[in-house]
Amino acid sequence: MCEVYMSTHDGGECYASVECDEDNGGKKEYKNFPNCRVGGHSRFEDDRIGPFSIEFSERDGEGQGEGLTTPNLRLKYLNEWEPIAVNSEAQRQSTDGSAGEYGKAFLCKYGNYKASIIGSHISNQRTKKYSCGVPRAGLQSEDGTLDSNMPEDKKGYRSGTCSFHVKQFQKPDPSRDDYALEISSVKDANEKKIGGKGKAGPDVVLKTKLPKTISFKTGNVDADPVSFQYGDDKWTSDDEGRCSVGKYDSGDREMDCTFKCD
Question: What is the bridge-based pairing of β-strands 180-187 and 160-169?
Fold first, then answer.
């Protein structure tokens, strides 16, 4: 998930930033608002959440005090620029703690203000602060209530980082039987299923909507990793940067891996 923060000061000085979980790039700031005014749409490009825009739709909006207020947040890959009423979501969260229209994963809130003689509510502040949680482009929120879909390619899938889920079955009789594999799903960069295969093996060459096949190859003993290949890209389930692998349980183990798909 990522946090989009937005603020104004004394009726102007519009500002925004985007910061994402597990992101070495840190916070990216957006200070140049081309339309920092009531009803003005300012659009930005972010390589993690995709194109987005912010509009402050009111001056001195209800319950927010004096200033440039009531932001609407729009993201290209969340319902094609459908406006998110940030203040309405933040009001609901601040009054009864409910998650609002967009589900538990989507949380808009007011910024934190230090207690002072003028109070700590947004209506008493010269700087109006708001923030919302949104998924990265092409991904779902953890509870599935938000789905950020990038456009599919002409061939019916979204290129970028694809993934697959594999179940490896142990040999019933190691002296004479082979391993078996079940490719539960192959998903594109939008996490849309584009392929899969039932129980087969010990090795599988899988055709999907992708232009190249994906190869799956088992080892000789239980401790051996499963080997994968997509085009010239080769790796194994031991690659912790690309795969997570469970332990054998009741005769099988499961694994999830990612790969770059063109």
Answer: antiparallel
Q: How many CA atoms lie within 13 A of 154 on its CB side?
A: 0
pLDDT tens-place string over residues 21-51? 766 568 899 999 999 999 999 999 898 888 8
C-alpha of 108 from chain center: 16
From the number of C-beta atoms within 10 Å of its C-beta (0-12, 13-18, 19+), residue 17 rates as middle
Contacts of 191 (CB under 8 A, 6+ apart): 138, 139, 140, 163
Q: Is the pTM of this model over 0.90?
A: no
Cis bond upstream, residue 51 (ω within 30): no
Q: Where is 94: in which H helix or E strand?
A: helix 86-96
Q: Please state the domain extents for the chain.
A: 2-134, 160-261
Q: Helix, strand, or coil here: 73?
A: strand
Read off the pLDDT of residues 144-192 as tens digits, 9 standing for 90 and up.
555 556 566 677 788 888 999 999 999 999 989 999 999 999 998 888 8
Q: If you search the block for the tokens 């937005």, which residue do you land on?
A: 6
Q: Which amino acid is at 207?
A: K
State the Cα–Cα distance between residues 116 and 196, nearest whole angstrom. Answer: 59
Which runs of E-coded beta strand occur in 45-179?
Answer: 52-59, 68-75, 84-85, 108-110, 127-134, 160-169
Burial track 200-215 (b if 16+ CB lie within 10 A, e otherwise): ebbebebebbbeeebe
DSSP conformation class of 147: B
